[in-house]
Design a protein that fits this description.
alpha/beta, D-Maltodextrin-Binding Protein, domain 2, Rossmann fold, 3 domains, six-stranded mixed sheet, 18% strand, globular
């Protein structure tokens, strides 16, 4: 199998020799957790780890982003053990990247991810962790609107992955899920579906994946929403009454407003076990603190608090799951046993199974971009070409006082000969030049005009807006709001804009565009521009 975007269970090699699968899921969540003395990043951008060495009584923990809801539990554990957790929240695969590269050794004492399965498949990361202790569990499941359950005539306790696939094939069911290349819940969902549809009785093999590919391709025709994080997926789902269901952790599904029916397919699930794990390089005192904290979190009182507060399942015998969590057993589907199988499954999803992407990049090339800013944009776009998928349609729309029409180009990545389109995009990026004012809203209107309804149902369509300043030319913000609400078709209104905060751009204005269109704001003022473009890939 050709693997242009070479993925290894969440680890992706690039020119800069860094692991990329860390763009996972989810990008990194930020939350000030005063009750626990916790610290994290800002928004959904990269978290900032504590600098310096281990401090007695304080654990620096690299944690999966969804564990922000553990703050009350950690506060009770602090009272019992004297151990204060200072987490930096990250998507599971982003954390895996940091661990494999050795970066985590310098900044953290422990890791607490939804699963360590990614780490075990990579020798560079497997040797950097030790002493893992599962704390709680949550299976990946299907959350579906009750009306859709009734329409399909399903008994939620008996539904199988094959039945779900059949409903998709009959165009009776649509769903959203996170990107498997960036999110553990997305990859677990992919493994679950592949296992269920292949009939594999043990860990998936290359043969199983090949046998299941026709059914998998059929299954993913039903995916209408993709996301780099569970939180944004839940928000996007709430805006899309035309989407029936969501695939995610059971605990996340139960937190979505509206009372979804949670289905754990009868033929098996993949379950996150949230192991609290020491880094091999951590000081002995830190490892001892991890052991004491893990022991406290597995006491009956802590386990009851965990399941009641987070809707995750206890791992200690004798502690009952919270009300609403079904207790009938489900087969645990095994994780792929080798990197090559995970590699092939992810590559197949990215380039063959999922809907193709269609994106318009609305790029500020006004006079203020002259010099270093424009150089950074060119470099970021050149780097981004290594991430474009087979069948992806990419439109570059530079603008200044208005859209620079003679520089607008569109290329589609041909699976049989991807190099031609990628080289052309790199060439387009290298020729960008800075001039004129900044017509943000008029340029966005032209981007929507290029995205008609014809392909709305068979692509993941989005607009990426990069600007380094405030709007100075063309339509004002109010005119764009009116245009969006009154002039666009329902299908076009569902196309999200992902603005990138860069240079002197107006955060409030860009955040408003994201909120209006159902997109998400990405910040390149505190991180790299290429990192922002990369993070958006999970949402395209």
């Amino acid at each position: 199998m050709r693997s242009r975007t070479r993925i290894r269970t969440g680890f992706r090699t690039r020119i800069r020799a860094r692991f990329r699968t860390g763009r996972v899921a989810g990008a990194v969540l930020a939350l000030a957790l005063a009750a626990t003395g916790c610290s994290g990043g800002d928004g959904d951008g990269k978290g900032t780890a504590d600098s310096g060495e281990y401090r007695p009584g304080t654990l620096r923990v690299l944690a999966s982003s969804e564990l922000a809801d553990m703050a009350p539990v950690l506060e009770e554990a602090r009272k019992a053990t004297g151990v204060t957790v200072r987490p930096t929240y990250a998507g599971t695969l982003d954390a895996a990247k940091r661990i494999a590269s050795g970066e985590a050794d310098k900044q953290f004492d422990a890791v607490w991810l939804s699963s360590n399965d990614y780490l075990r498949l990579n020798p560079d990361s497997a040797r950097r962790i030790t002493g893992e202790t599962p704390v709680m569990t949550s299976p990946v499941a299907l959350g579906i609107r009750p009306a859709a359950v009734a329409r399909l005539g399903w008994d939620p306790k008996k539904v199988t992955w094959a039945q779900i696939d059949q409903a998709v094939a009959q165009k009776r069911l649509s769903y959203g899920m996170t990107d498997p290349l960036r999110s553990n819940s997305g990859f677990s969902a992919l493994v679950s579906v592949a296992s269920g549809l292949s009939g594999a009785q043990s860990a998936l093999t290359d043969k199983d994946v090949k046998a299941a590919t026709p059914k998998l391709k059929e299954f993913f025709t039903g995916q209408k929403l993709t996301s780099g994080s569970s939180g944004w997926l839940a928000t996007a789902y709430a805006r899309r009454p035309d989407v029936d269901a969501v695939v995610n952790y059971e605990s996340v599904l139960l937190s979505i407003p509206g009372g979804l029916t949670v289905i754990r397919p009868a033929d098996g699930v993949v379950t996150a076990d949230y192991p609290l794990t020491s880094l091999t390089a951590a000081r002995p005192e830190a490892k001892d603190a991890v052991r004491r904290l893990a022991a406290q979190l597995r006491t009956p009182a802590a386990q009851r608090l965990i399941t009641e507060r987070t809707k995750r399942r206890p791992v200690v015998p004798g502690v009952a799951p919270a009300a609403g969590l079904a207790t009938d057993p489900r087969r645990e589907l095994p994780f792929p046993g080798s990197r090559s199988v995970a590699d092939g499954l992810l590559d197949s999803y990215d380039n063959t199974l999922r809907r193709p992407s269609r994106t318009v990049y609305v790029l500020d090339t006004s006079g203020s971009m002259e010099g270093e800013r424009l150089d950074r944009l060119k470099a970021a776009l050149t780097e981004l070409t290594g991430d474009f998928r087979d069948r992806e349609e990419v439109t570059m729309m530079p603008f200044g006082t208005g859209v620079k029409s003679d520089e607008v180009t569109t290329h589609t990545v041909d699976p049989g000969a991807p190099k031609a389109a990628l080289d052309a995009i790199r060439g387009d990026a290298s020729r960008l030049s800075a001039s004129g004012g900044t017509a943000i809203y008029s340029s966005l209107k032209e981007a929507y005009a290029r995205l008609d309804d014809a392909r709305a149902d068979d692509t993941f369509t989005s607009i990426v807006l990069m600007t380094d300043g405030a709007n100075t030319d063309g339509d004002p913000a109010a005119a764009f709001d009116t245009f969006h609400d009154r002039s666009l078709s329902p299908a076009q209104q569902r196309i999200p804009v992902f603005p990138i905060l860069f240079g002197d751009s107006d955060r409030a204005a860009l955040d408003h565009i994201a909120q209006l269109t159902g997109g998400k704001l990405f910040d390149a003022t505190t991180g790299s521009l290429d990192g922002a473009f990369e993070e958006i890939r999970g949402y395209q």
